[in-house]
């Protein structure tokens, strides 16, 4: 009787939990701003697009400063590059696109409007629709694209400390007018992890196209809108990297869940991601699209995009990650899983292929890249494109193992050092004295010492395999892992056989 009741309570509990879960269903839509870093000049003027590390406000002109009377001229190559992305994302390119003014009053845009595009009120962006397929836990997930649009980047703002407490704001207009491609997704992403995987795939596609270098700081930025089922949409701005996207979303999901739990309501608002404090803070509430008073940009003519133009771009499209993945499986006979990991970054796949031209065992290369190399890069917080390691060094390390000069264990140490310093493996093993000891006489001397020091283990070793392993371990200890384990093992067994029984 009591048992039954307990059972019922439990059942009820589970039912409540599942409706709660449904209620808390997470919906995330992303707006990704991609700088077309392959361009030399800005979107509407001839100022250089290479603004990083330059003196603030040194690459500006009347157009990107928005001075009265200046007129924008569209950079055709920006349209070419944006079309490449549209085609790669299966998005329908508009035969005639129009630029719109997005009006707002803020220091990062001295004209008080941004030249952008719009898909309502008569606006026609570069392209409509499309999708990105990416892998989540071994299954393919599709997130649909709403639109792609071209727009100008606002100026860069600097705060002293944080946005809400800084006594002043500094503005650098070098970034104002840089070509941005905005990619808007449907709110079909279900978790912070999915968002990260989606972005990784998108970035790999964009890098394979060669239109943007994702490793450059701020070259791919992301705004996210997020709602928990039944709740209002909250928009998070100022997420500067993909790692931050995951953190910001995780924070925001928990914040909204807690509000709902306390029976409080989530307000429709725009929040700012503060990467230093790792929180979102409210910027403005109840902002709607109509506040931007979108209307056609009268200083630019509509752009006609012919079928010929589209075909010309399409014919020049390079190999994309999915095709490359399939090719790597076929050409190098590696598992699909490996090929997926390697093609998740163009630089990583490039590194792998270069290594394969220098060494016959592709699976061994991929193993080392996916485990140890990836780990050391992560520890340094850098990407393979930023690391000093060259494919030649990586392969030399594998050859040193094959030739018996270093053990696998020492090789890990060497690889870590190559990643840090860019030195060749030979330099490192010489400098750090890491060459494997295979000289029997040398090893025997150390074994003698170990036998003296651990007589109990020596006794046990005659009947106990674990004790033998223990003795081998002691030799490894004394040689800092440099003794050849095979030879050591053999020599210990031989010595045990000769050793008089007590
Ligand atoms: Zn300019
Ligand atoms: Mn935008």
Notes on the structure:
- The chain is of the alpha+beta class and 502 residues long.
- The chain folds into 3 domains: 26-312, no CATH class; 321-432, no CATH class; 440-498, Arc Repressor Mutant, subunit A, CATH 1.10.10.
- The protein is built from 16 helices and 17 strands.
- The strands form 4 sheets. Strands 1, 2, 6, 7, 8, 11, 12, 13, 14 and 15 form a 10-stranded mixed β-sheet that branches. A 3-stranded antiparallel β-sheet has the order 5-4-16, with no helix packed on it.
- A hairpin with a 4-residue loop joins β14 (269-274) and β15 (279-285).
- α8 (346-356) crosses α10 (391-402), α9 packs across α11 (408-421) and α13 (440-453) packs across α15.
- It is elongated and about 100 Å long.
- Mean pLDDT is 89; it is low at 1-12.
- Manganese (II) ion binds next to loops.
- Zinc ion binds next to loops.
Structural class: alpha+beta
| Total of domains | 3
DSSP helical segment count: 16
Distinct ligands, ions and cofactors found in the model: zinc ion, manganese (II) ion
What is the general shape?
elongated
Average pLDDT value? 89
User: What is the percentage of strand-forming residues?
Assistant: 15-25%
Given as residue ranges, the uncertain stretches (5+ residues, pLDDT < 50) are 1-12
Distance between the termini: 68 Å
Biggest sheet details:
10 strands, mixed
| Quaternary class | single chain
Q: What Rg do the Cα atoms give?
A: 30 Å
Helical content stands at: 40-55%
* Structure summary, number of beta strands: 17
């Amino acid at each position: 009787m009591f048992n039954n009741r307990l059972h019922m309570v439990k059942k009820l509990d589970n039912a409540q939990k599942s409706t709660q879960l449904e209620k808390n269903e997470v919906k995330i839509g992303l707006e990704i701003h991609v700088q077309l870093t392959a361009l030399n000049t800005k979107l509407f003027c001839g100022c250089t697009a290479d603004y990083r590390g330059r003196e603030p406000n040194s690459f500006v002109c009347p157009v990107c400063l928005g001075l009265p009377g200046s007129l924008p001229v569209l950079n055709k190559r920006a349209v070419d590059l944006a079309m490449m992305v549209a085609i790669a994302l299966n998005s329908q390119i508009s035969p005639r696109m129009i630029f719109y003014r997005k009006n707002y009053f803020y220091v990062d845009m001295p004209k008080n409007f941004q030249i952008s595009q719009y898909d309502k009120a008569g606006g026609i962006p570069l392209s409509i629709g499309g999708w990105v397929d990416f892998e989540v836990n071994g299954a393919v997930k599709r997130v649909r694209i709403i639109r792609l649009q071209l727009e100008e980047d606002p100026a860069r703002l600097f705060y002293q400390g944080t946005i809400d407490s800084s006594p002043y704001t500094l503005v650098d207009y070098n970034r104002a007018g840089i070509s941005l491609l905005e990619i808007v997704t449907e709110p079909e992403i279900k978790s912070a992890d999915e968002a990260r995987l989606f972005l990784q795939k998108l970035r790999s596609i964009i890098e394979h196209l060669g239109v943007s270098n994702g490793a450059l700081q701020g070259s791919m930025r992301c705004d996210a809108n997020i709602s928990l089922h039944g709740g209002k949409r909250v928009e998070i701005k100022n997420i500067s990297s993909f790692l931050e996207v995951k953190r910001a979303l995780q924070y925001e999901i928990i914040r909204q869940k807690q509000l709902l739990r306390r029976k409080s309501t989530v307000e429709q608002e725009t929040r700012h991601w503060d990467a230093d404090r790792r929180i979102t803070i409210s910027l403005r509430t109840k902002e709607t699209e109509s506040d931007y008073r979108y209307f056609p940009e009268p200083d630019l003519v509509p752009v006609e995009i012919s079928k010929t133009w589209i075909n010309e771009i399409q014919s020049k499209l390079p190999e994309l990650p999915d095709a490359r993945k399939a090719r790597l499986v076929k050409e190098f006979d590696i598992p699909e899983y490996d090929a997926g990991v390697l093609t998740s970054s163009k630089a990583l796949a490039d590194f792998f292929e270069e290594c394969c031209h220098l060494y016959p065992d592709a699976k061994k290369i991929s193993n080392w890249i996916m485990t140890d190399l990836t780990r050391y890069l992560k520890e340094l917080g850098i990407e393979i494109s930023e690391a000093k390691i060259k494919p030649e060094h990586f392969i030399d390390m594998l050859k040193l193992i094959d030739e018996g000069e270093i053990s696998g264990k020492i090789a890990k140490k060497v690889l870590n050092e190559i990643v840090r310093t860019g030195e060749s493996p030979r330099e490192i093993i010489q400098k750090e004295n890491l060459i494997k000891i295979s000289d029997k006489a040398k090893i025997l001397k150390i074994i003698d010492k170990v036998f003296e020091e651990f007589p109990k283990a020596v006794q046990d070793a005659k009947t106990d395999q674990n004790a033998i392993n223990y003795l081998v371990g002691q030799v490894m200890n004394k040689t800092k892992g440099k003794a050849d384990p095979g030879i050591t093992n053999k020599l210990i067994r031989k010595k045990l056989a000769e050793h008089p029984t007590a």
